[in-house]
Design goal:
By secondary structure, the protein is an alpha/beta fold. It has three domains: 85 residues, OB fold (Dihydrolipoamide Acetyltransferase, E2P) (Beta Barrel); 145 residues, Rossmann fold; 54 residues, Orthogonal Bundle (Ribonucleotide Reductase Protein R1, domain 1), CATH 1.10.40. Helix content is 31%, strand content 20%. The strands form three sheets. Strands 10-9-8-11-13-12 form a six-stranded mixed sheet, with helices on both faces. Strand 1 and strand 2 form a beta hairpin. The radius of gyration is 22 Å and the shape is globular.
Length: 355
Amino acid sequence: MNLLMKYGLSNRFENEASLYPELSLARITAQYRGLYKIVTASGERQAELSGKLRHETKELAKFPTVGDFVMISPNADGNALIHHVLTRKSIFLRTAVGVSDQAQPVAANIDTVFLCMSLNHNFKLSRLERYLSVAWDSGATPVIILTKADLCVDLSQAVSQVERVSSFSDVITTSVYESDAVKKLGLYLKPGTTAAFIGSSGVGKSTLINKLMGTEVLATGEIGKADKGRHTTTGRELFPLPCGGAVIDTPGMRELGAESVDLSKSFDDIETLAAGCKFANCTHTNEPGCEVRQALSDGVIDQRRLNSYFKLKQEAGYDGLNSKQIEVKKLERMFQEVGGMKNARKFAKEKRRQK
């Protein structure tokens, strides 16, 4: 049996891999300093980047990450060499620490992003809105998991608050006293699919993964006063699940940088209102005919949510732009390696002429 089938391999990646007959297909399951753990059709091994791939890759976001399907060849030292990263169907990014204008990949080729937030000290709607904005932009489908429901004073009120900002995402509650967590999450974990768990340290990501695995594959620790759990996961890792599919655990992230976000889904209510403003470049502050300010006055939206929207829009560099301009900016980021969108169009035209 091809071992990759247990790690989310689909026809999509098999077909692309056939373009490189001289190389072998693998998937990255873990990432260390300078090294990767990969799984091939026959087993696990370590891998490193080929000199050419390392030299040609200019952006952090383009480097291989956990979940990537890659093309490899054997190396003399026993490790494999990674030559190509196959086209990603989704990528979860966060702003790189200490690197200006760069995004760092967190997980690739994920179908479902489980956004975990505990219902005690970790509960913060603005954090959830940030997670949702980045998750929708990744290309994966977010599912909200509210953990430690047993510690919540008013569970129905908390769930209601989350549902109002959920962007139509599914909302699941779990607690230490429930035995059906595997059943709840199993609905999203079909063979050939991959999920990722995102959330702050101590919210219970590792506990949920251990339940899905049926064994203690990840160590967890007791929770401190401020919900800061001792979490021994120091890097991202992908695991095949007994129920089918694969899952990626990530180190705790208290705040995600909004390098690129999809506000049209995470703030669909505000974006819909903004489309009806009198001026196309309305800043929703003091202009006449502003539908957003009117909705705020009428109590349709609240100031906290509007402030969260403004903050994420500014962080992503979308401040002052309308929806069409935002899409253009996203495309410019995608094609910046070839000098921007204009050069990309010129390059494409030249290619067509050569055919």
